[in-house]
Structures are given as C-alpha cells and as structure tokens.
Amino acid sequence: MNRQKLLVVGAHSADFVWRSAGTIAVTTAQGGSAVVIALSYGERGESGELWKEPGQTVENVKRIRHEQAVEAAEVVGATFRCLDLGDYPLTMTEVAMAQLVEVFREEAPSVVLTHTPVDPFNPDHPVAYQSVQRARLLAAGAGVASAFKAINPPDWYLFEPHQPELCEFVPNTFVDITPVIEKKIKAMAVMEAQSYLKDYYTELAARRGNHARRISGKQAVRYAEALQRMVPWVVNSV
Predict the structure, then answer these.
(1) How many C-beta atoms lie closer than 10 Å to residue 148's C-beta?
(2) Residue ranges of domains in the chain
(3) Cα separation, 195 vs 25, whole angstroms
(4) Extended strands (E) in 20-154
C-alpha cells in the first residue's frame, strides 16, 4: 500500500482505530494519505463509559467522540470527518448515500476499507458495508464513460470484525504494522469511551503477527492487521 490514497469508512467514529489504525499509519508513513469517514459518532451504542457520567447528553457525547476521533486520526497521520447520521440504528437515506458517493468522488481513493457484510452482534456494521459497496460502484460508474464524473474503482478490503468466525471474515491479506504499533496503541488509548478494547486489539495484532510470520517466513513481523480483499488482483505477470 505504498503511497496509496486510503479511504476508511466506519459505522462509528472509533471503528477505524481498533481495526485499521496500523494500516493507516503504515500507509501515511510510506508517503501515502488517509481519510477516515465515520457514518455516525456511535453516540448511543458505542459510548458506554461516557454514559456513566451523571447528566450526560447526546450532544456532549458527540462532541467528546469527535474530539477523540480527530486526535486519534492525527496520531496515525489521517484526517477525520463524520457524516453524523446517528447510530443504533444507522440509517442510510438517499441524501446520506449521495453524501458518501460525493466523498468517493472528491477523494478518489486508491484503496477503501470498511466493515464485513455480516455481523450478528452489531446492527450498524452491515449497513456501512452495503453503503460503501454501493457508493464505490456509483462513484466508479462501472469503470466506463458515464454522464457524471467517475473515479477509478478503488481496491476494496474489509477490516477484521470483533468476532471474525461469526462474521464470515476470511483474512487473505496481512499488513505488517510492526514499525507503527506504538502509534496504533497511542491512537487506541485516545478512545476512552471504549478503553476496554485497547488490550484486546493489541493482543489481536500480536496474534495476527504470528500468522503473518508463519505464512511469509518474515521473522521481523511481530504485529499485523488482517484484511479481506474483495476484488481480484489485475497483474501483468505471476
């Protein structure tokens, strides 16, 4: 993913941190760029620690989540933007879909990352998947001349869900995040509303590093993030 233009679309403002902060940091460290789009702040269903505070309000939770997401994105060299569509349930209206399509056209990413199409534990993640799939197709215009501005179809990956076996996630790509693991840990620490996930995803990165070493024989890989590539490679030789 050297010098790539990366677009990460999450259902909630913290999703990118747990699942792809390392991939983002690797991309930006290698001279690429990264934009994170959150469809919602996860203010209702993803901010449990904040709701323990007396007198808490939705608007205050959104404010805190925005500030945390911006800070975490900066740690890994990305920019952050939220469409603020609401969560639990996340609903993509035609207006919201048009917003997301416009993001694709404006950013013209070379790579897009998002959720899996199946998640029996989260109602919003599959909505994000479906929205990204549709927006990618609409923005690319099926790769042919169209009556609107079209972008080149970006490579498309799914990042790892919390329980991959139950989400039909089949990892076929491992990104070595060993050189940037401290950045990922720092970014995760910013997300205080879900601080309990930091240790889990640090341990997961170590396990995926073990898998990547065994697959590749590259003994220097200590930490990795798993992705599932959704489109075939087009190559000049094998």
Answers:
(1) 9
(2) 5-229
(3) 20
(4) 33-38, 79-82, 111-114
- CATH superfamily placement of domain 5-229: LmbE-like (3.40.50.10320)
Mode of pairing for the β-strands spanning 111-114 and 79-82: unpaired
DSSP string covering 28-53: HHTT-EEEEEES---TTTS-TTGGGS
Using CA atoms, how far apart are residues 234 and 161, in angstroms rounded to an integer?
A: 27
Single pTM value for the model: 0.95
The secondary structure of 62-90, three-state, reads HHHHHHHHHHHHHHCCCEEEECCCCCCCC
Distance in angstroms (rounded) separating the CA atoms of residues 42 and 22: 21
CA separation for the pair 123, 184 (Å, rounded) = 26
163-206 per-position pLDDT tens digit: 999 999 999 999 999 999 999 999 999 998 888 899 999 999 99
From the list 36, 30, 32, the residue with the least C-alpha distance to 9 is: 36
Structure tokens at 168: 């039909």
Q: Could you identify the residue written with the tokens 């179809």?
A: 153
Using one digit for the tens of pLDDT, what is the confidence trace for 113-157? Answer: 999 999 999 999 999 999 999 999 999 986 556 667 889 999 999
7: which DSSP letter? E
Peptide bond connecting 179 to the previous residue in cis, omega within 30 degrees of 0: no
